[in-house]
Amino acid sequence: xxxxxxxxxxxxxxxxxxxxxxxxxxxxxxxxxxxxxxxxxxxxxxxxxxxxxxxxxxxxxxxxxxxxxxxxxxxxxxxxxxxxxxxxxxxxxxxxxxxxxxxxxxxxxxxxxxxxxxxxxxxxxxxxxxxxxxxxxxxxxxxxxxxxxxxxxxxxxxxxxxxxxxxxxxxxxxxxxxxxxxxxxxxxxxxxxxxxxxxxxxxxxxxxxxxxxxxxxxxxxxxxxxxxxxxxxxxxxxxxxxxxxxxxxxxxxxxxxxxxxxxxxxxxxxxxxxxxxxxxxxxxxxxxxxxxxxxxxxxxxxxxxxxxxxxxxxxxxxxxxxxxxxxxxxxxxxxxxxxxxxxxxxxxxxxxxxxxxxxxxxxxxxxxxxxxxxxxxxxxxxxxxxxxxxxxxxxxxxxxxxxxxxxxxxxxxxxxxxxxxxxxxxxxxxxxxxxxxxxxxxxxxxxxxxxxxxxxxxxxxxxxxxxxxxxxxxxxxxxxxxxxxxxxxxxxxxxxxxxxxxxxxxxxxxxxxxxxxxxxxxxxxxxxxxxxx
Amino acid sequence: xxxxxxxxxxxxxxxxxxxxxxxxxxxxxxxxxxxxxxxxxxxxxxxxxxxxxxxxxxxxxxxxxxxxxxxxxxxxxxxxxxxxxxxxxxxxxxxxxxxxxxxxxxxxxxxxxxxxxxxxxxxxxxxxxxxxxxxxxxxxxxxxxxxxxxxxxxxxxxxxxxxxxxxxxxxxxxxxxxxxxxxxxxxxxxxxxxxxxxxxxxxxxxxxxxxxxxxxxxxxxxxxxxxxxxxxxxxxxxxxxxxxxxxxxxxxxxxxxxxxxxxxxxxxxxxxxxxxxxxxxxxxxxxxxxxxxxxxxxxxxxxxxxxxxxxxxxxxxxxxxx
Lengths: 533, 322
Known about the structure:
The structure holds two protein chains of two kinds.
Chain A: H1 2-24, E1 38-43, H2 58-67, E2 72-74, E3 86-88, E4 91-96, E5 102-107, H3 121-132, H4 141-146, H5 148-151, E6 154-161, E7 164-169, H6 176-179, H7 192-202, E8 213-219, E9 223-228, E10 241-246, H8 250-258, E11 264-266, H9 270-278, E12 282-284, E13 292-297, H10 307-316, H11 319-326, E14 331-333, H12 356-365, E15 372-379, H13 386-397, E16 400-407, H14 409-418, E17 426-431, H15 437-443, H16 461-471, H17 476-493, E18 497-503, E19 507-509, E20 513-514, E21 530-531
Parallel strand pairs in A: 1-10, 1-11, 15-16, 15-17
Antiparallel strand pairs in A: 2-3, 4-5, 5-7, 6-7, 8-9, 9-10, 11-19, 12-19, 13-17, 13-18, 14-18, 20-21
Helix pairs in contact in A: 10-12, 16-17
Chain B: H1 2-29, H2 34-39, H3 45-54, H4 61-73, H5 87-122, H6 127-141, H7 144-158, H8 176-210, H9 213-220, H10 225-253, H11 257-262, H12 268-278, H13 281-309, H14 311-321
Helix pairs in contact in B: 1-13, 5-6, 5-8, 5-10, 5-13, 6-8, 7-8, 8-10, 10-13, 12-13, 13-14
């Protein structure tokens, strides 16, 4: 046994040296003006599978959407816009039928996967069948589970001709196509040839797409290397290489940045941002990232049955203080469940200005003048529960003793997906999509666990009816009115949530990174930047 | 001696059996459901159940343990649930990376610990001894996490002499020199506390032996101090020193998690931590087992070394085994 271990250890050492030498080739292409270089981003956690329909997480999406393309994609190169819209990808155009149920995609001609497999309507259908058609041989139930929020609306798919692909929905839904631009479950195209060769399980280890970057290598929990695809059908990337290097510790990430070993950091520690800017590093912020950080009320909790208690909690929290003191300019106070970065967002909506005295009076009326003890389940996100502690402090001022129950992410996620038991009053989450339908996703009656993420057991059929109308109208102004009315009911009549803030996704870049755009999502367009030597 | 080694090897069997059992049970007792990672937030209970079945997770634990053990005995560690890689492909290179760091750290700790301990004991309460006592107290108490950050601040960010993170440079790196340069700071951070512990143990053991009558007799005979230290004192002090050195190496081989995290060193401890976060049971089991095996084997080597250097141990072991 000892001998075999020693042999493996030596083999491992050789592997390390080999990997390093192979990577040494990375600098052979020197950067030219507005072109080239290697962008090294220190990612804070592990990536998921590199098989888009089975992939989940914003970190993974940052790599997969560069390797793979969908029919459409988000335009993330125009950061000044209030929200991201769709642009052509593998479909050069698309139409929606008058009844809003049939989507017809005109596919690009001459596109090939990185392995040379041609892309056409048959391939598009093969990919869609993989997550939506249980009768297809390539059907994958995990892919279906991840993409359930998107696939549940699909009635059928059809190859019209070699370059025309059609999808029929079960009902009109004008936000459906953009719903697919999420990070947890991605309807992007993989090469059927690669799938045949490697099989359904191992395809994630051999990612072959049509995107602007090609997969080079992945060392699990260490790094991922992509290289520019010079045969890309669109505008080729400027970078030579894109490297995602996993560094879990925030202090180590900043040290690596200062030492010049990486040139991009996201989620920098808030107290370091000003210093880094003073040292010459670039800070990019994006105020329209579609996410809201919130606490969901458990509508089955005995003390929260009284709407006055829920209102009092909303009034007792100084959200502006969170944005100013905790987020230090990297976020904005939020008062509604319609998140920024969507067409229905109302930046001026504020039904509960900070009013601790009013909150106390309401609690008194509700019979909790002598105090109330509540449990708030939160997860470890590396922010040291700073905003949750702020809430705890604010609620203490009005007589509510908020017990923070912090759980490690996987344990939390498992509990969160089951919905809150009666003993838990609130739990936390930060989420959103680039369309306002996400609010429906989090609040619809038929999305109670295990059928969805409405774990606070909120239900109002009148609100659901408003959502239904909103997705069936082509008129975005009309849809905006409907969503805002739904949000008003949720926040002012039913008071089912405590939205707290939106995060502006601060990105720190080395001075020699040029052309980077912090778009309206948690994933970025890596075809735009380059790195000067 | 052969009999001694055989007896020792036989005692490893129940130890490894116990280790494998606890590793298996602990991996399964961790809260959180792996199907959450595998199927995401929208999966139905039916889909989750199918996944559990395909992974054999809904079989009774004793059956799962039996199958796992049987595969391990055939050298099969299974496949990672989280990333689909073969667990062996995942953990052995990471263990090799940890072994590189552990061996250099242990070498540093042994050299510093032995020399500092012996010299301190040779002139008790002199300047060097007082300096050693203070130094070992300080380095034995400094958390490696904080010490690592301090080293990075000084040597990487202030003076720019050494790299701050990783095992090689990502751009333009590679090769033994690059690895050695990346190895220096993590080695110091990981080896400081073991060096201090070894130095204190060596000093205490040597002081005790140097106060024995036979040492006084040797001195009275006029034997030079160097000879007394080397031949009479150190030889008798070796068993406890070897034991503490072995324990420290085992600890380092287990992956000095904090050092690996601070220096982004791709070792087995960090891999195990990531696997725990993902509830990747096959990887948790494989990584824990390989660390436990390393620890047991290092201690076996220490026992053999002690038996070789101290006939009393061989004889007493022989008596017991009869």
